[in-house]
Amino acid sequence: MILPKSTRLTSEQLAEVTAIVTEFGCKIQPIIGAVRSIYAIVGDERDELMINRLEGLEYVERIDRIQSPFKLMDRRSDLATHRIKVAGVTLGTELFVIAGNCTIDPKTPNFFYETAAAVKEAGANMIRGGVWKPRTNPYSFQGDVKSLDILMEGSRRTGLPVDTEVMEEAHIKLALDAGVTCLQVGARNALNYSLLRAIGRAVAEHHATVVLLKRSIHMGPINEFISAAEYIAAFGNPNVILCPRGTTPTLEGYRNHPDESITPLLKEKTWAPVIVDPSHSVGKASYVPACALAAVAYGADGLCIEAHVNPSHGIGDDPKQALTPEVLATTIRQAKALWVLRRGA
Ligand code: PEP
Ligand code: MN
User: Fold this and answer.
1) Are both 205 and 138 inside the same structural domain?
2) Which of 139, 162, 220, 306 could be joined to 322 by an S-S link, Cβ 3.0–4.6 Å?
3) Is residue 305 part of a domain?
């Protein structure tokens, strides 16, 4: 990782460092921050001669060599000072809440519009709505591109940004062109490296876009989760948020094995913000508020919660796990209070 003395390298300086690392079979990946940029050396960066030549450049402050499988997302990385700002909130400075329908029903758009207004009223910062859905049963509703217009109309009506899951390359472009702020990588795709790369490439120049990376259903080691985030950040946009959402094997009565307790461990290893999804974790509306509060107690920076104005008439997961606006409002109020209590503010 190259840290320049100034806030960023000039194009001549960039060309010079690129020429040096190319001689050693490496590439340079600029990571453009709001305040300063840093330059990742992609490849085997251990060659002493290469490092010496880079360190000898008068515009280079220093070269950092982190031996980590996720050198950008590592807590010791120079990116650790990077802050993700979304919907006017710098993550980590207040509890950030994403809420809305699991799945937008294109036949009843008013449910989504009413939910969007209700979650805003309840204190959410961003609205979620599934357009394309990864379903376990191939005969279940798979989503509908028509819902993308409904999602964006909900955003216009409330003035809040939106989050939706993308499952293939075509979805990424459609979502970005429509103005989606947060691209969600679902638990089933969290280890789909070609999708992660495609997202990384697509958002590299979209500095206001963020990615909510769910933890895979079958994900084992924590390093695997953070490395998945590294896949996206490696293309130049480091706005990746980690989202524990429960893993298998499950406990009886729970949809997944709740994993909000990995939050402190994540925070020890990475600077990435953590937004916990209690809805998919426990999978039952009556258990969601407690799981949400537990996540905040464990140090989560935010929550992603499914909510619906009329859960039993929703589709996808909403009949079983969506909170009503009233319960959502109470949960957000309590979670925000707990967040403040925990930070000692
Ligand atoms: C969802 O957010 O509706 C969803 C399908 O989530 P996950 O990928 O965590 O199952
Ligand atoms: Mn869902």
Assistant:
1) yes
2) 306
3) yes
- Is residue 76 assigned to a domain? no
Q: How far apart are CA 52 and CA 240, in angstroms?
A: 32
- 74 found inside a domain: no
> Ligand 1 pocket: which of 184, 242, 254, 304 to mutate (most atoms <8 Å of CB)?
184
Amino acid at position 229, single letter: A
The CATH number of whichever domain residue 127 belongs to comes to 3.20.20.70
User: Under a CB-based contact definition with an 8 Å cutoff, are residues 262 and 222 in contact?
Assistant: yes
| 211 CA to centre of ligand 1 in angstroms | 14
Q: Is there a single domain that holds both residue 246 and residue 275? A: yes
Say whether 81 sits in a helix, a strand or coil. Answer: helix
Q: Which domain holds residue 319?
A: 85-343
- The CB of 186 under 6 Å from ligand 1? The reply is yes
Atom 1 (ligand 1) nearest CA: 102
Ligand 1 lined by 280 (C-beta under 6 Å): yes
Indicate which residue's Cα is closest to atom 9 of ligand 1. Answer: 187
56 with 90, same domain: the answer is no
Length of the chain: 345
CA of 167 to the centre of ligand 1 (A): 11
Task: Please list the pLDDT of the chain residue by residue as tens digits (345 residues).
Answer: 899 999 999 999 999 999 999 999 999 999 887 778 999 998 888 889 999 999 999 999 999 887 788 989 999 998 999 999 999 999 999 999 999 999 999 999 999 999 999 999 999 999 999 999 999 899 999 999 999 999 999 999 999 999 999 999 999 999 999 999 999 999 999 999 999 999 999 999 899 999 999 998 887 789 999 999 999 999 999 999 999 999 987 788 999 999 999 999 999 999 999 999 999 999 999 999 999 999 999 999 999 999 999 999 999 999 999 999 999 999 999 999 999 999 875
Which ligand is nearest to the Cα of residue 185, counting in written order?
Answer: 1
